[in-house]
């Protein structure tokens, strides 16, 4: 995760700690969220850092949650780290939760 594509055309975008975005964030590459988003994020891979907050939905191949998410996550793989807080709906093929994470979730079947 978060490695440059062999073609060299995929990049990682940073939403830094000082940024607050309301609306949709769309990228064909990876996104690191260190700030706040109220809305939707669509990307290849998403890392939500430990001080970050997402209120809304995620559509990605893989998401790592070290911060806080309130909303719906539709991913192939979801990893919730020990600092992560999740409250919402999970649609995923695989879920990994570290000891210490706070999770309040409803699981929904992922459409194939």
Q: How would you describe this protein?
A:
By secondary structure, the protein is mostly beta strands. The protein has one domain. The protein is built from no helices and nine strands. The chain has strands spanning 12-15, 20-26, 30-33, 36-42, 45-48, 53-65, 68-80, 85-97, 102-107. Strands 1, 2, 3, 4, 5, 6, 7, 8 and 9 form a nine-stranded parallel beta sheet that branches. The two termini are 22 Å apart. The mean pLDDT is 92.
Topology:
Blueprint: E1 12-15, E2 20-26, E3 30-33, E4 36-42, E5 45-48, E6 53-65, E7 68-80, E8 85-97, E9 102-107
Labels describing this entry:
112 residues; mainly beta; 9-stranded parallel sheet
What is the structure about, briefly put?
With 112 residues, this protein is mainly beta.
């Amino acid at each position: 995760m978060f490695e440059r594509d062999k073609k060299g055309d995929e990049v990682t975008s940073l939403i830094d700690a000082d940024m607050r975005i309301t609306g949709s964030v769309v990228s064909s590459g990876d996104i690191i969220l260190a700030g706040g988003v109220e809305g939707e994020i669509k990307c290849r891979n998403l890392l939500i850092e430990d001080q970050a907050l997402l209120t809304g939905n995620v559509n990605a191949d893989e998401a790592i949650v070290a911060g806080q998410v309130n909303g719906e996550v539709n991913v192939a793989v979801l990893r919730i780290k020990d600092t992560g807080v999740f409250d919402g709906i999970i649609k995923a093929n695989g879920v990994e939760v570290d000891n210490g994470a706070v999770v309040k979730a409803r699981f929904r079947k992922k459409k194939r």
